[in-house]
Amino acid sequence: MTYLDSDGVESLAGVWGRAAEGLRAQGDKVRSCELRAETFGSHYADQMADIGPAVERLAGLMTGDGARCDDYRDKLRMTSIAFIGTDDRTAAGLGGDPSRQG
After folding, report:
1. End-to-end C-alpha distance for the chain, whole angstroms
2. Residue 35 burial by CB count (10 A; 0-12/13-18/19+): exposed, middle or buried?
3. What is the pLDDT of residues 45-57, one digit of tens each?
4. Distance from C-alpha of 39 to C-alpha of 69, rounded to nearest angstrom
C-alpha cells in the first residue's frame, strides 16, 4: 500500500507555487510590452531571455523521483530551448537582432 506524505505534498506545492509566480511575472511583462515594429524584435528577445532561466529553475526543482522525474525535467528543458530558439529567430526577422542587444 502506498501512503501519501501530506506534508511533503504541501511543501512541494509551495515550491511550485513560487516558481509559477516567477513565470507569471514574466508573462505579465511580455503582455505589457508596447508592440512597435521598430523595437519589437529586441524587446521580445530580451523578454524571452528572462523566461529561459525561470524555466530552468522550475526544471531544477524536479529531483528525487528517479528516471521519471529526470525524463520530465529533460523534456521541459528541451521544450524551453525549442521555444526560445524559435522566438529568437522570429524576433530577428521582425526588426531586432537578439545577438546585438544593448
Report:
1. 58
2. exposed
3. 676 677 777 777 7
4. 40
102 DSSP 8-state letter: -
Q: Indicate the domain borders of the chain.
A: 6-100
Stated pTM of the model = 0.35
Measured CA to CA, the distance from residue 35 to residue 44 in angstroms comes to: 9
As given in the structure block, the three cell numbers for residue 43 are: 524587446
Hey, which bits of 1-102 come out as E strands?
none
C-alpha cell at 30: 511580455
Angstrom CA distances, 41 to 46, 49, 78, stand at 9, 12, 23
